[in-house]
Give the backbone structure.
Amino acid sequence: MTDAMERLERIGQAMAHAGFYPHPVDGIERRDTHISMVFLAGSWVYKLKKPVDFGFLDFTTFEARRRFCQREVALNQRLSHGVYDSVVEIREEAPGAFSMGSRGEVVEVAVRMRRLPDAWCLQTILTESGVDGASSSKRLETSLEALGESLGRFYERSEGSPVIDAFGMPDRVAFNMEENFQQVDPFVGSLIPSDRWEVIREVSRAFFRDRQGLLLRRVAEGRIRDGHGDLRTDHIYLEEDGSIQIIDCIEFNDRF
């Protein structure tokens, strides 16, 4: 474990206590991904970036983590409102003593977000209600129609340019695909069944070979836009008043 990761773990231990936060906290839950350490603390969420380098992202320096935290807040405000609050500083007031106060050296940063109830998550809603006409509610149907309209408006106004167009060219698509294969390959046989992996890889390559014209046509028609990059049901929240919140876009890699 690197020194930066060890320090992050010590910060995580401090953030597991209610007294760390400058607001009332009635419970704390930690959730980890391969790139983030997330703390659900009362009505707020704090998301720290781990000092890792996976090739497609590099968070190994403090400057990079600060920059990408700031970018995460700015980019995610495009498809959400009132969720991404700010980038907060974490300081070391004394050796091993961390806080969000005003004293000491700034040693880490975190994205601060308003906490959204799990019950509003589209993935949860679909799991509980199903997606067929018989079991889906009218409210869900209306919400999904509104989601489509919202995304349509977003794509219409999203930035497009020759630089962005280049990310949709076949050579860039091929690079992303093969990079993914290379980074996953060490885990084939242990985490991913070999036979399934071969099918995924060959079908992907076959689609790419057979659809060169489609990729080029999308570029020519101006369909390559600066979008979300990771639009999944667990990143979409449907509020009770009908508002739609889309969070957790990719901020760390323009190719994606």
In short: The CA atoms of residues 166 and 172 lie 7 Å apart.
